[in-house]
Each structure stands twice: as structure tokens, then as C-alpha cells.
Amino acid sequence: xxxxxxxxxxxxxxxxxxxxxxxxxxxxxxxxxxxxxxxxxxxxxxxxxxxxxxxxxxxxxxxxxxxxxxxxxxxxxxxxxxxxxxxxxxxxxxxxxxxxxxxxxxxxxxxxxxxxxxxxxxxxxxxxxxxxxxxxxxxxxxxxxxxxxxxxxxxxxxxxxxxxxxxxxxxxxxxxxxxxxxxxxxxxxxxxxxxxxxxxxxxxxxxxxxxxxxxxxxxxxxxxxxxxxxxxxxxxxxxxxxxxxxxxxxxxxxxxxxxxxxxxxxxxxxxxxxxxxxxxxxxxxxxxxxxxxxxxxxxxxxxxxxxxxxxxxxxxxxxxxxxxxxxxxxxxxxxxxxxxxxxxxxxxxxxxxxxxxxxxxxxxxxxxxxxxxxxxxxxxxxxxxxxxxxxxxxxxxxxxxxxxxxxxxxxxxxxxxxxxxxxxxxxxxxxxxxxxxxxxxxxxxxxxxxxxxxxxxxxxxxxxxxxxxxxxxxxxxxxxxxxxxxxxxxxxxxxxxxxxxxxxxxxxxxxxxxxxxxxxxxxxxxxxxxxxxxxxxxxxxxxxxxxxxxxxxxxxxxxxxxxxxxxxxxxxxxxxxxxxxxxxxxxxxxxxxxxxxxxxxxxxxxxxxxxxxxxxxxxxxxxxxxxxxxxxxxxxxxxxxxxxxxxxxxxxxxxxxxxxxxxxxxxxxxxxxxxxxxxxxxxxxxxxxxxxxxxxxxxxxxxxxxxxxxxxxxxxxxxxxxxxxxxxxxxxxxxxxxxxxxxxxxxxxxxxxxxxxxxxxxxxxxxxxxxxxxxxxxxxxxxxxxxxxxxxxxxxxxxxxxxxxxxxxxxxxxxxxxxxxxxxxxxxxxxxxxxxxxxxxxxxxxxxxxxxxxxxxxxxxxxxxxxxxxxxxxxxxxxxxxxxxxxxxxxxxxxxxxxxxxxxxxxxxxxxxxxxxxxxxxxxxxxxxxxxxxxxxxxxxxxxxxxxxxxxxxxxxxxxxxxxxxxxxxxxxxxxxxxxxxxxxxxxxxxxxxxxxxxxxxxxxxxxxxxxxxxxxxxxxxxxxxxxxxxxxxxxxxxxxxxxxxxxxxxxxxxxxxxxxxxxxxxxxxxxxxxxxxxxxxxxxxxxxxxxxxxxxxxxxxxxxxxxxxxxxxxxxxxxxxxxxxxxxxxxxxxxxxxxxxxxxxxxxxxxxxxxxxxxxxxxxxxxxxxxxxxxxxxxxxxxxxxxxxxxxxxxxxxxxxxxxxxxxxxxxxxxxxxxxxx
Length: 1223
Description:
By secondary structure, the chain is mainly β. It is 0% helix and 45% strand. Among the domains are: 34-48 and 425-842, Regulator of chromosome condensation 1/beta-lactamase-inhibitor protein II (Methylamine Dehydrogenase, Chain H, 7 Propeller), CATH 2.130.10; 61-173, Jelly Rolls (Sandwich), CATH 2.60.120; 185-299, Jelly Rolls (Sandwich), CATH 2.60.120. The chain is built from no helices and 91 strands. The strands form 22 sheets. Strands 4, 29, 30, 31, 60, 61 and 62 form a 7-stranded antiparallel sheet that branches. Mean pLDDT is 81; it is low at 1-53, 423-452, 816-822, 831-837 and 845-864. Pfam families: RCC1 (PF00415), WD40_RLD (PF25390).
């Protein structure tokens, strides 16, 4: 953990703005999938690794989220007797050498009757059919077919007219020579049955045909995949396929009407005699044709990806309950049903639509996943249409069916078998920055090549924000590690952890989503749990934080969660959206602005939503009709509504967009991928990130120049990446660190080729600020390339040197088939195709999850005997440290017993504070110290002259005593002789000195026990200074009480207040700083308001005082503010600093000693992550862990080996890896 040095601390908590990269590699993003970076910091790479997770045996099946690989409607239809070939190998994570593919083929708009034959590109066209159709029909069918050596499949249109074809792939079979039971052996399609040459199947009659021992198929096989076609039936009915010699199941494979020709794919067990039987449930006869596509090896399946056939069984029949409504969903259980194991990878079933009230289509997908842009069954009103479906099964064991129709329909699902999942043996490795042990491997502050994450197995997916990391296991539970200052580990404490710990009370989790210090878990039952920070209502309840998961009330039927730093959005299965959290620019979309919501509120006017994405202040909804709605902040025109004026608190339509398949948002831009594989962009364009050849922002979508056939994209801060169908990549926009990968550091306003990439599958742009950009590409051979900055080893190539061209991440192979890469704050994670995970990069907050502690050198002199420091505090003459083991230590002055060791003797070395365990934070004021414990109680020791120990006495105590009546405390602060505790229910308790009414209970009498601050609820944080207290509420407003001699209560008066008053005109406040008689609020839009004293220019607007907030001019994109009694400092999101006020010793850092009534830039500072100040000095922690100082140096406090003051920043000698300062 942290070691301690004199006045500097380096330890558990992360530094805002520090860079990290997180790679989530649980499977490659589907075409049209996006990854976006909107965060503001940097970290390091990590990977979770398992020993045998994903299928590796030849012939094993790998399911993927259905993805569209062909749609001739965006190009040219297939002409009469014409062919079209489409790429499968190398697309969507499918290996280049895949043996066979499973996809849904839809014929639409044919000009004449005919049929389609699918076969491996380069092979001879077989005498078989897959889809039969009549003029004008839309007909779907599942197809299993070998893939050509060029990675393609060919479709032949045997018709006298042209037709449009759509192919939605749902999985593939691994190449090689299959040998294990349950492995699939594809063959060139061959006709094994055609009754037209003999006798049709009679009414209620059966026909059996030989599979085993025919056409090179072994005599003994477990199951067969074939296309079954019904032709010339003399009456309506259905066909049931089953293993010869077994009992006929209650199921169907093809439904038909008189004289129809209907095809459907069938996967069914083979009898011991090697035959399959077809039963004709009809009052008339019909012709039957069977074209085999492959078979499954016999034996007892055990290998991941092996197929286990079952006697067909009905798992869903809505005719017995309620139909699927318009744009509605129905989920049904597969795992754990009918003898099927609870954990299966994918299922094969026959889906029948019957009695639809309108035309439409059905999309099948894994429960808990995002609904894909794909279809499985198309139908017209009144039709009965069957189709075979192969689709992944959700973590909850269910499959979801979406009815894209204006009418209700009945659905029937008959399961035919399932595919075995990968073994639950994922472990994790990591590398990169390890300054706070986030690599968890007991090594250095970062790892430049992968190392194992401690104690993880059965990993399904990884999420993280660069400071805290999460692993979803195959059993539906969650592990977390890294930073925990807001309880985001979910284990009931606020102690950081360098190894994975279990998130309490979670089971049945299907996905995890995080942003900042808040985490969300979507459960298989459609409910949501949240934990961590809730300063703006992110937890969806009235509390300000929770260190264990709580259920978000009022949310059911949730299919996806999108999180921002200040709130979240839930997409429901009825196509509507709920939002909660901050709302200062209308980003909740509920028709209001400024008033946040700590409970989910419906986004106004949205229905038929297919997907939601969001930046911190704007949100976007992709509708099922391919159009887009946007709401929230509209700076730079990023809502795409044709103007940059006025935010919108209701969804507005993005102009000129149709046929959109996916969308991504960064903080200042948005991008839409269209069905024709082109890209549109809108919003800011200062670095050319719109890709339209200019640097002018656009308020409506413009086309990105020079790219087509785009399969996937990623967007970072000002930099954009596109992977094309041929495996090359293009990039455009900001390039100051070589993050475009083009061999230069020159920005580009048009898409240019990324150097050396020819077989890319996907690209992920690391979340982080523009000072630390990085990108990752997964190649078809399962390796990874990375480029950009590398100070903490986030490129994973064994060095810390930047690279402006892609370099190989060391030791990573086997990533083919992964779903996505996610990178955040310098940390990266990769889930490999075998189910294992790798990690690398920054480990500043233990986010790499590898065992052990790290060593630090962060101040000139070491504090004797302290290690494992989590956080610290100090009084005028006494220093305190809380250790990660929950103990507290103190050293220095002890005249009031403030060391807490039972004496009043000073100590020059740390001594343990008596009787304390489970300490999560310490604060100190004067001669009194306070400790917050993990159980929510508060303990105090030292000076008690005003009753500030809160134990009903005014006697000093040299050992900790419990503050009476305070439980469930989430945070504590103290100033002078007064102390405050914010409880987890959002109320506040105060005790101690009260001469100015600073206890806020309506009196001016001191209190030696806690009293409730009157009228305060929904409080997220408290700040106290010189007899005045301030509360920031979750709705973005601020309350103040106590001393008001300078107007620092901000209510337009100079009268003290002994109950809270509202600070005038403030909305959207996210943080507050106060010192002396001046207060500052940072708003969500990045501006700053100040009020109170301005004698030395500290208001920043040139006035001497103001009793109401005034805007500090010239400040935008502010991340945080620090205040001394006479000066103020603003850290901007770009890592630079502005300062204003008194400058007697050069503390403004602008090269002069002249006071400034307006903000001036501190010279030579970039990459600043945090700042602290005294009256005469300022200190900045940089993202590289070094420290700069400026101002008075009479006592050597600048730490630069000199004794003279400095009016510009100088480097503190010998300090690296610093996370925070105690002043």
C-alpha cells in the first residue's frame, strides 16, 4: 500500500486525471458496435486469465451476438441465376479459418419465385436449397454451411428475377479435424431425401431417411443439421422431426398451408439406426426434401462448444399465457429447464410465429444483452411462420424474443439441443502502472507486460474505470478490486483492495456497468443493483453512498444500463427509457432542468428504443426504425438538431439520420454508423474529429470522408477510429501524442490509414484525458496492437516509451472471438478466447488486482515505521495516518491527547491510536481528531473544550471515545471546534462549537452531543470553514449556515444563520471549496461561482465582496477548485491551472508577485491531477506522480533544495508517484 513521507502521502486513493486503460476482451464487438472514451484520467493494463474457458476443440461452436454481415438492400440485389459472396472469416471476431458458420438468411422483395443455395465460396455449387420463395414474399431460414478457404460464403439465386438477401450470423464452428464428442463436422450440402421421386408423406404419416453411413457420414453420429423443405402440401399442417426409434415429441419444425413451399433448418438427434423420422401432422399429403449440412460426433459431450442434442421439447408457448405485444419482449428459460444444465453457451430451437396481428419480425438474443440489429423470423398478418434459431443464452439461462411489429403475436419455441459452455477457470494477469498496487502482484507501480490477477476463476467479463476493476463470473457473482473511497468495491467497507473481493449480496448478474465511483449490476430478472458514490443521486435512491449493493426501486424489465459520471439510464424491454442522477442541463430528458432525480424518471416521449448511449451531459437513443433522438447539453451542436443554442430537456430528433445501426457519444461529439456502412458525425471539430475535411463544428450530421464498408468504430477524446471490412483501419482527429497510429503527431481532418494494420477486428480507444491517449486493436490472429502514450506501460510492450505506430502487446494471443476491448485511465484488461484474462498498465488504485503491496518514495524524508497507508490528515502540530488494515496512527504534538495513545506526551514517531479498528477515514481540526469506521460509527479524541468530541462531556480525552448517536455515517468533516457527519440517508449531524449558529439546529448554544442540522436531506457533501458550513445536495443546489460577516452564506445578506439557507441562484453544483470568508462552487457545466469576501481579488470578478454567487470570468471546463484564505485555484479538465487573488509571495504562479482580481494561467503546468494550497503556497500533483510547488519558501516548503520563494512552479525534489498532499 502506501508508505508515508513527512508532508506527502501516496496510497490508496486515485488521483483525478491520472491515466488508465481497461481492456474488456470477452468477445469482439459486432459490426456496428462502438467503444467510446469520455473519462478524464489515466491508469494501466490488466488481464483476467483462465485455464480453459472458451471452446478450443476442432468443431466446437462459438456463439456470438447476432450481427448482420450482408444486406444487399444497401448495394445491389442478386440477379437472376446470380451469386453474391460475403465475408465471414475475420469478421465480428470469427477466425479467418472458421470451419462453418450459422446464420439467418432472409429473402425479401423477390421479383419471381425460386430458391437460394448457400455453399462455401470456391466450392462446386451443390444440388440443394436453403430458402424457397414466391414473388414478393419475405422468407427467413437458418443456414449452417461450410466457409470457403477465402473466409466467404456464396449464395446462389435460382430464379428468373432478382432478390434482396440479408444474412445475420449467430455463431461459427472452430476449424481443424473434429474428434471430440459433440463436435460439428460440416459437409458440402447433400440431398439425402426427396419424396418427389417416390411417395409423399401421407396424412399423419411418417417418412424416415438414413443419415448415418451415407455420403461419408459415419454410421454413428449424435445429431444432424439439415434443411427441410415442404413442397406441394394438399392441406395445412406441420412437420415434426425426431430421432428414429424414439417417442414423437410435442413440437414442430415446419408449419405450412395448402400448396405452400416452406423451408426450415432442422437440428435433431439421430436414432441408433442412423435415421431421422419426419411426421406429417396434416389431413393431406406433402412432399419432403432434406439437404444435410453437417453432423455432430457421437459420444458423451464434455468439451466447451460441444453440442448436446435433446429430444425436442416445448419451452415456450405464449398461447397458454399472453402474446408478445407490439415492440414487446418475451423471455423463456433454457438453462435449468427440461434437464438442460443451468449454464449453457447457446441453444438451438425452432421458433414459430402464429396469429400475428400485423406484419413484422422477431429478433432472438441472449437475455440481459443488448438487442442486436438482426432478425430471425419475418411474418405478415395472420401468417404462421417457423424458423430454426441458434442463439447465445444469457447468464440467467434465458433467451429473449423481441416482437418488432405494430401488433401482438403468439410465439412457440421447441428446443433441439444446446452447446456446452467454457469451463469456469478464468484467472487474471496484469501489467502497467502499479503505484498503488493496482496490478496486485506485489511488484512495482506499473507493469509494462502482463501479470496474473490474484484468485480469479470463471471470469465472464471485466469492467473498470481505471481506478476500480470488476469481474463478472460465470456463476453470476461479481468480484471487485482497486480504489474504494466511495464504497465502490461493494464489500461493506471503504478500504482499498489490491486483490479481488466479492461484491456482497449479488447473484444472477448478467452484466456490470461502471462510471466514476458508481457501479451497476443488471440481474437476470430485469432489476438493477447499484453501489458506490451517489453525490448526484447516481444510486437511484435518496442516500449519498453505499458500500454494498442496493436495489434501484421502480426498475423492472431492464435490458441494458448506460452509466455516466453523474447518473445513469436504463433501457426497458418495452422500448422506453428511465434516467436518474444530475440534471443541470436537462440530461434526464424528463422536461425539467436543474433539478436532479434520485429515483428513475421516464425520459419523455421515447418509445421503440433499441439502444441508449450517453456522455456525461448528453444522451442519445437509437430507435428501432433507425432514427436517433438526443437530449441534454447542446454545446457545439452535439444534439444534431441544427443549432448549438439551448440545451434540451426533452429528446429531439437528430436531423437527417435514418438507417442507423449504432451510435457512440463522446463529451463533445456523436457518431452514427449506418446500415450502408458509412459514418455520420456532428458536434465539435477543433481537431478535425468530424472527419469532413474541416475544423468547423457542425450542428447536423455530416459524412466522414473517405471511408466505406465500416464494420466497427471507437471514439476517444478528439480521436476517432474505424475498422473496415478488409481488416484495415482508419483514424482521424486529434493526434498530439501519436494516438492516430499514423507515424506522425499531426492532426487529421480526414480519415487516414493506421500504419501496419491489415487484419484488424476491432479497436478500442482508451478513456482518459487528452494528455494520455492510447488505442488498442485486436487482430484476426488473436494478438493485440497498441499505440499512443505509454508512461505507465499501458502499451503492454515491456517499455514506457510512447509509440505513434501500433506495437504488439507482449505475450497476448488467443483473443479471436472476444467481444470488446475497454480501456480506462491507463489500465487494460483482455479476456482471452480460452476464457482467461490479462491486464496491464497503471495500477495506481490496485485496479489490476494482483496480490501484494508496492513501495513508494513520495517525499524527501520517510516517516518511520509506517506502511500500508490508506489516507491521512493533520492538525496544526499533529499528523495522522489510516492504514489499510483499519488501524490509525499519529505523531507530533499531543498537548490535548490528540495522539490518542492514552498520554499527553509528544511523539516524533508514529504511535498507534488506541482501540481503533476498521478505520476508513480520519479528519482533524485544531487539537481534535475524528475517525470514521466501516460500521458507520464515529470516534473522536483530543481537545473537547466546546464539546467537539460529541460524548456528552467537555473533558479532553487522550483515547478515542464514541460520538454519541451517530450511526450510518458516510463522511465526516471538522472546522474549528465544530464537527459534521453526513449520514447515508442524506441527513447531517453536527456537534461542538456553535457561537455563530454553525451547528445549524436553530440555536447558538454549543452542543456536546450531535444534533440534526435542520431541514437538510439529500446531502452529498459538507464543507466547513471558520464558523460557516456548506452542504451540496444531490439536486445540485447548495445550503449554507453559520457565520456570514462577508456574505459567505450567499443569500444576499450579511446576517448569520443558525439554520441552513439556500445559496441564491446556484443550480448544478457538483463540488464546493471554502476558506476564510469566500466560497466557490464548481458547476456541472465546468464554470465556477464565487461569493463572500473579495478583498484581495479572490472572487475573480474584480469586486471586493458579494453576498450572492457571481461567475468567475474566463473559466470553463473546470474539474476542481482549491481555496486559501486569500487566493483561489482552478484545475481545468485539460490539466492546466488558473489562479487569482493575493500574490504576495508569487503564489499565483504566473511569474509575478502582483495580485490578480481575475484568473491567470499558472505558468508551465500541464497534466495536473490535483492541487492543494496554504495561504502563501500552492502544490500541484501531476498525472506522472511528480509534484510542482510555488510561493513562499522561507522554511524550505517548496522542497526544491532552495530557500527563496518562487513565482513559477518548481519541481519538488525526489518525489515520484505522489497521489495527494497533506497541508
